[in-house]
Amino acid sequence: MARTDGDTWDLASGVGATATAVAASRALANRATLIDDPWAEPLVKAVGMEVFLRILDGNIDSDDAESDLRRMAQGMAVRTRYFDDFVIDATASGIRQTVILASGLDARPYRLTWPASTGVFEIDQPGVIDFKTTTLRNLGATPTADLHTIGVDLRDDWPGALRASGFDPSQPTAWIAEGLLIYLPPEAQDRLFDHITALSPVGSRLATEFMPSMGAFTGESGEPDDDGQERWRKLGFHDDLADLVYHGERSHVIDYLNGLGWQVTGDLMQELFEANGFESHDDEMAEKFTGFQYISAALTSTN
Ligand SMILES: C[S@@+](CC[C@H](N)C(=O)[O-])C[C@H]1O[C@@H](n2cnc3c(N)ncnc32)[C@H](O)[C@@H]1O
Q1: InterPro entries this protein is in (predicted)?
Q2: pLDDT 10s digits, 261-296
Q3: Is 10 a domain residue?
Q4: 64 lies in some domain
Q5: Which end of the chain has fewer CB within 10 Å, C or N?
């Protein structure tokens, strides 16, 4: 089923299941000691989706399971380290306010060491926010920052909800939008960056991704492309990612941010793989992500 305006989900359905998939990869990366995220595995287990429980149990019917799982763990380690380092650099520079947009099962407000009195604001759909917050509390996790959770749809008036929860737009802020953009309609992606900019004084920072095309999700014919999803499918996750993302022309993220006064630096995923000491691949899957970058930006002027 294609996306509709105002559709909702929890962590076991629709777009929400992608947050659980990502957390399952973090759990594998944590087990391989590539990252330190002790909460990913218990969170995935609490969601209880059979496919991810089987992956964590190693109960997978695929010849390439071992290499597929290793590559997933390494890919997630690259991603997690990138956004962790972004936050650590931002706080080291004196930024004391962070907003994690589409936080999913991200446990940064519980697992990173934040300077005293740092405000962290997590935004996601109400069902996602409530489940994670309650589950972590029941697991005995305590936030390591001054945590504010906001259950709101990012296609709606999220800036209003953010301000109402105590966010201070006069303070430089570090914004994270990790694994979010493809799940927003193209115009909502532009609006997201417009809102972020309007809520940010000069000196604020932003980390997100740049996907040069949606080709990893849709074949040239316009039909859903199986290859891009082959790995998850082999592991038993049959949700059609092509139905979860929004297709069609969208703004070039880097150009759009430049136009709003952000100075952007990008790192190609392939290069980050090598920089992290992992073998890079040049198979069909890697080809579809050619040009994919993790990007960090600093607001240097306001229009
Ligand atoms: C792939 S997951 C990434 C989660 C998290 N950032 C991470 O990296 O673990 C995508 C997340 O985007 C959230 N999301 C997508 N569209 C959203 C919307 N319109 N409003 C709120 N959250 C949204 C989903 O609920 C989900 O948690």
Answers
A1: Ppm1/Ppm2/Tcmp, SAM-dependent_MTases_sf, SAM_mthyl_Trfase_ML2640-like
A2: 999 999 999 899 999 999 877 666 677 678 899 999
A3: no
A4: no
A5: C
